[in-house]
Amino acid sequence: MELPLPLVLHVVLLLLASHSLANADGVNTTTYIVFMDAGRMPAVHRTPALWHAAHLQSLSIDPESHLLYSYSAAAHGFAAALLPDHLPLLRSSPEVLQVVPDAVFQLHTTRSPEFLGLLSPAYQPTIQNLEAATHDVVIGVLDTGVWPESPSFAGGDLPPPPARWKGVCEAGVDFPPSSCGRKLVGARSFSRGLRAANGGAIGVGKRVFRSARDRDGHGTHTASTAAGAAVANASLLGYATGTARGMAPGARVAVYKVCWPEGCLGSDILAGIDAAVADGVGVLSLSLGGGAAPYFRDTVAVGAFGAAAAGVFVSCSAGNSGPSGATVSNTAPWVATVGAGTLDRDFPAYVTLPTGARLAGVSLYAGPSPSPRPAMLPLVYGGGRDNASKLCLSGTLDPATVRGRIVLCDRGVNARVEKGAVVKAAGGAGMVLANTAASGEELVADSHLLPAVAVGRLVGDKIRAYAARGGRPMAMLSFGGTVLGVRPSPVVAAFSSRGPNTVVPEVLKPDMIGPGVNILAGWSGVAGPTGLAKDGRRTHFNIISGTSMSCPHISGVAALLKAAHPDWSPAAIKSALMTTAYTVDNTNSSLRDAADGSLANLFAYGAGHVNPQKALLPGLVYDISTNDYVAFLCSLDYNPAHIQVITKMSNITCPKKFRPGDLNYPSFSVVFKQKSKRVMRFRRELTNVGPAMSVYNVKVSSPESVRVTVTPAKLVFKKVGQKQRYYVTFASKADRSPAKPDFGWISWMSNEHVIRSPVGVTWNM
């Protein structure tokens, strides 16, 4: 399995039971998040923070030595570095709802506006009308920080931030308060959880900015993707030249640095969400996540619920663990879960063999050629003493064997760009990076330190077979620059994590996909484009890939919708994005999967690829209230304390008849669990956000294995804002219970709009 660099990673969740900090007495502490029952806070305490400190003091736990954070905006509780004998004291306290260990996350990791239609002439009047409105929207980005000098954050033409904005520009190492302005309106950093887990240290052996300044580049990239200002003549070393701009270039950006070289701690993430909600962000963008866990134990899910309840749209990356199924993360229904697709832009490169074969791949290499003139060079595969050399792992290549040669390396285990560095260090003249079955035909371009071409598995197998024939194999590398209008596109990225949702199968995830492959955006001033320490190149922009990149695209588009419809709930915005998404590429074919070229399905792309133009005027939306989410949590058989951890609500009364699939979600995930129950019925409610006197008729594309009936088949909306219910019956056909999932669609159609919901059917009998 490949282990890519942190900037292209999604998240692997690691519980920190072994991460501890020695206190003044030399006793190890472990960090926990303690959720409190706010209804029990005595009136004598003016703030939750004072109550949390007093509560610890009442248990003979010194808050000055142990308390790390106090949460009140997005969650109720605190983080503390605790001794083993503290745990029973807290868990037996009536005021405490739950005590969970802290967790560490890693990051998931311009043509986009044109590809999404945001720069089309027909759309420009709409964008210009929205420009002033987006000035009031602040997008909060939780990531590795920001490089404030990036031209993407120039905001000289913007008016002052909205009066309701309460954020601050936190001073720190190499980050004076003047680093912020009218585009970057806030910057904070959170590291207490990480320092508690790491014995007080951050970035051991690395230079780290103990401030909101971004050394990694990932945070600058995601923030500028969401809302970067327009920058002319942007490129990565000559690749993808053009005007780089975020999805919502008029919106503001606030950065919350919660990720460091060792990862992102749950306690720090929750502190960032809590601060962002209190500051007044309208959109939150988190290109990180965790493993599958019940929502009451998922830090991001808990914080995101509090944000959504406060009217904040929350977008999260789906993960980079595809194409394997059941790998999607960030699956809470109050979160927009975003997978990744390709753009219609590519960076072709070629491997030419003496046989005359010219084999296509991709590359972002921008240095000198392997030889003064295009010429064949010796090709070597396995330039070391054992098979590990075929992977080009550090220390496996024999310089005497690879010097002056092009080295064929199998993809996997170590980072793609690290393989290039290993080849270069051994004296290789170039590299061909060949996919194996694990990566299939997915091609991700990298800015290698030496001439290098990445090729898919089929091409890789041809080159491997040629190299194995013996004799004196030769090859030549060449580079084709930037090509637009690539067909087919979009294609679902092979790395994009897939459904079904393992936490709650009745909620279809991911929700949608957006551009996430080879994305050009801003970059840190102290990191090379590969992110390797030995990369001395510097550039204002970089091209990287991951669901980390697709997530801020959706965050930026959500900011446009929030500006256009300030009274819409986060659920209504997500509904608009989902029900107007498309599933046909630019060759008029159904979306395909980059892993093997086959047709993709709903577990890969959810409702489809985002379409901002149509999302602005969806016609109808599926809205969801906080009480609806409470009923949903009740249906999961969570106990009252668990529900209160998520919702901050006490004295909850659960409805008697509510199933997870009854949530008013814009998609359907039908799970047949019992052989005797082969019919399931769901209710949905649509709200008219289009014109009065709108008439919609239903169209059903039934899965082959299920009969679908919708009643009524016609909905008439006499007024704007009117709500209408409909019911759907799914009947599994008696003669078959397929092992594989089945898919279909339910669409409501008027003369102006199509509101389409995906249907996924699975059997778990």
Task: Itemize the secondary structure elements and their pairings.
Blueprint: E1 14-15, E2 21-22, E3 28-36, H1 48-58, H2 63-66, E4 67-71, E5 77-82, H3 86-91, E6 96-101, E7 103-105, H4 111-115, H5 124-134, E8 138-143, E9 184-189, H6 192-197, H7 218-227, E10 231-236, E11 239-244, E12 252-257, E13 259-260, E14 263-265, H8 266-279, E15 283-286, H9 299-309, E16 313-317, E17 336-341, E18 345-346, E19 348-352, E20 358-362, E21 377-381, H10 399-402, E22 406-410, H11 416-425, E23 430-434, E24 452-455, H12 457-468, E25 474-479, E26 483-484, E27 512-515, E28 519-522, E29 541-544, H13 547-564, H14 570-579, H15 602-605, H16 612-615, E30 620-621, H17 626-635, H18 640-647, E31 668-672, E32 679-688, E33 694-701, E34 706-711, E35 714-717, E36 723-732, E37 742-749, E38 754-763
Parallel strand pairs: 8-12, 8-15, 9-12, 15-16, 16-17, 17-27, 21-22, 22-23, 23-24, 31-38
Antiparallel strand pairs: 1-7, 2-3, 3-5, 3-6, 4-5, 7-14, 10-11, 13-14, 18-26, 19-20, 19-25, 21-25, 28-29, 30-32, 32-36, 33-35, 33-37, 34-36, 37-38
Helix pairs in contact: 7-13, 8-9
